[in-house]
Amino acid sequence: QVHLVESGGGLVQPGGSLRLSCEAPGSIFSIAAMGWYRQAPGKQRELVAAVTSGGSTNYVDSVKGRFTISRDNAKNTVYLQMNSLKPEDTAVYYCNAKYSDLWSRRYDYWGQGTQVTVSS
Questions:
Q1: What pLDDT digit, counting tens, does each position of 26-54 carry?
Q2: Beta bridge partner(s), residue 70
Q3: DSSP letter string over 45-114?
Q4: Which of 63, 82, 83, 89 stands the most exposed, by the fewest C-beta atoms within 10 Å?
Q5: Which is nearest to 21 in space by CA: 120, 111, 118, 119?
Q6: For 75-115, what is each residue's pLDDT tens digit?
């Protein structure tokens, strides 16, 4: 069983910043594509940002220029720096790890989720 350990959520005022962290087991981190998803009440889960094992990143349009995803391979940790937060960013944020093994079997793991609330 693979455990992804998230931290960093909380309550912040509009315009504020938060940084989410997600630590993954070292056995998979270096080969996994890591991502952050979010799910707001009544909405489907959506991909917010992702970073490949090689460091390529992509973002949903609504967070471009405000959020930055990064990975520290020495710490087996992926981060999501969230700036200029808006009330519409309020959601439960989930860390995700995806990779394939030598036999092309695909694996997909999720963290437990961390609440981000943007409100005055």
A1: 888 888 999 999 999 999 999 999 999 99
A2: 79
A3: -EEEEEE-TT--EEE-GGGTTTEEEEEETTTTEEEEEE-S--GGG-EEEEEEEEEE-TT--EEEEE---E
A4: 83
A5: 111
A6: 999 999 999 999 999 999 999 999 998 899 999 999 999 99
